[in-house]
C-alpha cells in the first residue's frame, strides 16, 4: 500500500479559474456504512470534508490519486461524491457540526478571534464565525474522534471505490462502539512547541500497519490548521516516540487542555472532554 498525503485548502475565488475540476463519482452510488444495514434507498452526495469546516467557496486539493499528480480546484458545493446513503449521512450530521465547530475554535485559537485582523471573514456582516469564538467552549473529544475517522474513510474510499471499511470501524464512526483503550485521538505536540497557523488548511496522511504481511489502514494523521492530530483505531504505546517532519515527538493521548500563547492576540486555552475509554464489546 503506497503512502498517501492529501493536502486540502480553502481558497477564495478570484474569478480567474474558467474551468473547475470535478470529484470522481462511482459508477453506481454506494454507502460505505452498508455493513450497518438499513441503508435508505435515496443516496446522498457526501462532502469529502464537512462543508462547515471549509471557510471559502473553493477547495484546492493535491495528493489524492484522483488529482493525477496535479492540483485540483473544486467549488466547495461540488466537493462531494455518492459514497453514503442519505440515512447514514443524516445520522452523522451532529458529528459534522462538532468537527466543524472544533476546527473553527482551533483556528480562532491560533489566529485570534474573528474581529482580529488575522481572522478574515468573507462577509463582515456575517458574524457566524464570531459566534464560534468562545474560548470557554469545550469540544467533545469523543465526537471529534468520530469526525476524524469518518474523514479517514471518506478520503480512503475516494482512492478506491471498491473499498468498504470493516463493520467494527464503521460502528466507531456511528458511536455504536467505543474506541478501545489506548486507541482514539493523539495530539502530536509537546509543551513548548511552536505551531505555525495555517488558515483553512487540512492535510491527511494515511497511517498503516502490517497484519500477516498485508498493509492495513489503521487511521490517519490530520494536520488541522497546523496542529497535528492522529486518529488511530488501534492502541499505540504512548511511550514510543513518533517521527514527523524530521523531529521526534511524544504522543499525548486524549489531552484535556491546551494553552496557546500567541504573539498577536491574547493567550487562551482549548479544552476537550472525554468519556472514559473502554471497549463495550
Ligand atoms: Zn447507508
Structure in words:
The chain is α+β, with helices and mostly antiparallel strands and 281 residues long. The chain has one domain. 20% of the residues lie in helices and 28% in strands. It contains 5 helices and 15 strands. The chain has an 8-stranded antiparallel β-sheet, with helices on one face. The chain is globular and about 50 Å long. The protein starts with a strand and ends in an 8-residue tail after the last strand. About 5% of the residues have low confidence. The structure holds zinc ion (ZN). Zinc ion binds next to helix 1.
Topology:
Elements: E1 5-11, E2 43-47, E3 58-62, E4 72-75, E5 80-85, H1 86-91, H2 93-111, H3 128-132, E6 138-140, H4 141-159, H5 167-173, E7 184-187, E8 201-211, E9 214-224, E10 227-232, E11 242-244, E12 247-249, E13 252-253, E14 257-260, E15 268-273
The chain binds zinc ion.
What percentage of residues falls in helices of 4 or more residues?
10-25%
Q: What molecules are bound to this protein?
A: zinc ion
What low-confidence regions span 5 or more consecutive residues with pLDDT below 50? Answer: 116-129
Strand content: 25-35%
Could you tell me the radius of gyration in angstroms? 19 Å
What is the strand arrangement across the widest sheet? 4-3-1-8-9-10-7-13
What coarse outline follows from CA principal-axis ratios?
A: globular
- Helix count, DSSP H or I runs of 4 or more residues: 5
Distance between the termini: 30 Å
The residue-averaged pLDDT reads 85
What is the number of independent domains? 1
User: Strand tally, please?
Assistant: 15
Q: What pattern of helices and strands is seen along the backbone?
A: EEEEEHHHEHHEEEEEEEEE
Main beta sheet: 8 strands, antiparallel
The helix-and-strand class reads alpha+beta
